[in-house]
Design goal:
- This protein is α/β, with parallel strands linked by helices.
- It has helices spanning 26-40, 116-123, 135-142, 146-158, 163-174, 182-195, 262-266, 301-305, 316-319, and strands at 14-21, 44-51, 59-67, 84-87, 107-111, 128-133, 197-201, 248-252, 272-278, 284-291, 311-315.
- It folds into 2 domains: 14-201, Pyruvate-ferredoxin Oxidoreductase, domain 3 (3-Layer(aba) Sandwich), CATH 3.40.920.10; 245-319, 2-Layer Sandwich (Alpha-Beta Plaits), CATH 3.30.70.
- The chain has 9 helices and 11 strands.
- A 7-stranded mixed β-sheet has the order 2-3-1-4-5-6-7, sandwiched between helices. A two-stranded antiparallel ribbon has the order 8-11. The chain has a two-stranded antiparallel sheet with strand order 9-10.
- The chain is globular and about 85 Å long.
Length: 324
């Protein structure tokens, strides 16, 4: 029987890795991809995810590998050198480990407004194929989620996962419990399949070939502090919640604000910035000036609590620019 897999590694597997954060649906996507390939198309394979606390915004990796029916699956390790790398939000590329393991035979899918040529400059990719899709906007248009859009893009990029197989797996996952959402999910899938733009790049000496590196924990049994002592406390100044948002943000209308502070008390991530001010009476006070979107994950709790229409829910794409 002729293999339908477009590429295989030395062990006979076609491998995928999905880089995401909690809330964007990478874990579910990995399960759907695996069920589509194994249960619907008759391939052998495996899928699992890696994540810490089950919390919106925390790092998530999902892995899937496929092989022909005559190949035995005896590998359960994370995918280190993927044939297909899916990045659920371009902000994740601020972490250099997200793009580790890319080779000249890797296809990279990125949820972004950028073109493949622009993303190549970000990825510093020596050669290979890059696919770009604005999955966030497509999900908003279809009234669905980012992951269903990217499932369509994955189907097209893989070259072997049939759209009908993935849609059947989606129906099994969502059809009974979330029947009302299925039309939007299927529309989102079709948008992801049709709107992704691919470009294949020849070798460019500006970007040298990356030698393979395996991540090694900074602390291990030989050098860990006694008792698990935390010697380097974290600092939220480097935190970036941009990748957590689902396409909507709170927008501040200063002319309606009475500086009651309820939004600041409700916000879980301290996004609101205040400055000292002086009232007409000469009394010193503080007034709300702006929202720092670096720390905003788009939970919109502030909009719910505001009683004076000083905060409204708006599309992120209309208010935030690339350079902000």
């Amino acid at each position: 029987m002729k293999s339908i897999l477009p590429q295989k590694n030395e062990l006979g597997f076609y491998e995928m890795r999905m880089e995401s954060i909690g809330g964007l649906g990478a874990n579910v996507s990995g399960k759907i991809i695996a069920e589509a390939g194994i249960l619907e198309m008759g391939l052998n394979g495996a899928s699992f995810s890696s994540y810490g606390s089950e919390k919106k915004g925390s790092p998530v990796k999902a892995f899937a590998r496929f092989c022909d029916v005559d190949t035995v699956v005896r590998v359960n390790s994370p995918v280190e050198r993927p044939h297909l790398l899916v990045i659920f939000h371009e902000t994740l590329l601020n972490d250099p480990t997200v793009a580790m393991g890319i080779t000249d035979n890797t296809t990279v899918i990125v949820n972004t407004k950028k073109t493949p040529a622009e993303m190549r400059e970000v990825l510093k990719m020596h050669a290979g194929t890059i696919g770009c899709v604005d999955a966030l906007q497509a999900a908003i248009d279809a009234k669905s989620r980012v992951n269903t859009v990217l499932l369509g893009s994955i189907s097209k990029a893989s070259g072997f996962l049939a759209p009908e197989a993935i849609k059947a797996a989606m129906d099994k996952a969502f059809g009974r419990k979330y029947a009302a959402a299925m039309p939007g999910n299927l529309k989102a899938f079709d948008l992801g399949y049709s709107e992704i733009i691919f470009e294949t790049f020849e070798a460019d000496e500006r970007f040298p070939v990356r030698p393979f590196e395996r991540l090694v924990p900074k602390l291990g049994y030989e050098n860990a502090p006694a008792g698990g002592l935390v010697t380097n406390p974290g600092n939220s100044i480097l935190k970036n919640n941009t990748a957590c948002r689902q396409g909507y943000i709170p927008v501040f209308h200063k002319e309606n604000c009475i500086n009651c502070g309820e939004c600041d008390l409700t916000c879980p991530d301290y996004c609101f910035e205040w400055e000292e001010d002086t009232l007409k009476s000469g009394k010193k006070t503080v007034t709300l000036q702006r929202i720092n979107y670096q720390y905003c994950k788009g939970c919109l709790k502030c909009v719910v609590i505001c009683k004076h229409d000083a905060l409204t829910t708006e599309l992120e794409s209309e208010y935030l620019k690339e350079d902000k």
